[in-house]
Specification:
268 residues; 2-enoyl-CoA Hydratase, Chain A, domain 1; seven-stranded mixed beta sheet; three-stranded mixed beta sheet; 50% helix
């Protein structure tokens, strides 16, 4: 097995199976700038390797990923703000393009989720083609209250839930979904005991590798195109633009300042 340490991420290649392992446990796999770009680099390693047929996304922390740095302390944002007075390009560069890179990754992806998958971290858990989670997994998008934002920069919830009422409830009320609730809503594929999680995912990956890589790529392309014909991609772009628009408003700024003082950015 080949193994590369990319900093915040460990990349493994084991025959036709590759693994992207988030590895910043002391910070709950926060999506800081280094994490985002290490994640993106691992996607590139798997994408351009003809031997790889499937990518597993998993975590070495107590949970999957706790999402954005709530303070917005990103070098991409700082530079953009200094140069133009907004964070529009910073948002696009750091959280739109890398998320679309995951969406456009041409081979099957499996998210192996345990524990927390919160905020932007829930996107890395739910956007992959298959999501398998342990019984202790939970999902939440708390941004409307915690950060004062309309979700993250790429609102995938309408497309994952495919249910207007459930998506609205999840976003407005910051519902914390258990693994079983997520399964009942159809946003994950399976829930298994924690001790069976890795075994279950590896078995699924092995089944996928039995197919030709060209066939898998074509199958995924057709799945993605169905969603894109309904507007998925342009909706993600609009989400990033709207985040920047909201960030320029004074009521948002006052709310965020108050929340940072009260919670330090912790999920509620």
């Amino acid at each position: 097995m080949e193994r590369q340490d990319l900093g915040r991420v460990i990349y493994e290649k084991d025959g036709a199976i590759s693994r992207l392992i988030m590895n910043w446990p002391e910070k709950a796999n926060l999506q800081d700038s280094e994490m985002v770009w290490a994640f993106d680099k691992a996607l590139g390693l798997a994408e351009y390797d003809y031997d790889v047929k499937v990518l597993i996304i998993k975590s070495n922390a107590r949970g999957f990923s706790s999402g954005h740095v709530a303070t917005g302390d990103y070098p991409e944002f700082k530079e953009n703000l200094e140069r133009t007075g907004t964070t529009w390009q910073g948002h696009t560069k750091l959280f739109l393009h890398p998320m679309l890179r995951l969406w456009e990754f041409p081979k099957p992806t499996i998210a192996q989720v345990h524990g927390y998958a919160a905020g932007g971290g829930s996107y890395w858990a739910l956007l992959p083609d298959l999501t398998v989670c342990s019984e202790d997994a939970w999902f939440q998008m708390p941004h409307t209250y915690l950060m004062g934002l309309p979700g993250a920069e790429t609102m995938i919830e309408p497309w994952v839930f495919m249910n207007y009422k459930r998506a609205a409830e999840y976003l407005y009320l910051r519902r914390k979904l258990t693994a079983q609730q997520a399964l009942e809503l159809g946003i994950v594929n399976a829930v298994v005991p924690r001790e069976k999680l890795e075994e279950t995912v590896e078995e699924m990956a092995q089944q996928i590798t039995m197919c030709p890589v060209t066939t898998l790529t074509a199958c995924k392309l057709l799945l993605k195109r169905a969603w894109e014909l309904m507007g998925f991609r342009i909706h993600q772009q609009m989400s990033a633009d709207m985040t920047t628009t909201v960030a320029a408003h004074t009521d948002f700024q006052a709310h965020l300042a108050r929340m940072m003082k009260e919670t330090g950015g912790r999920t509620k």
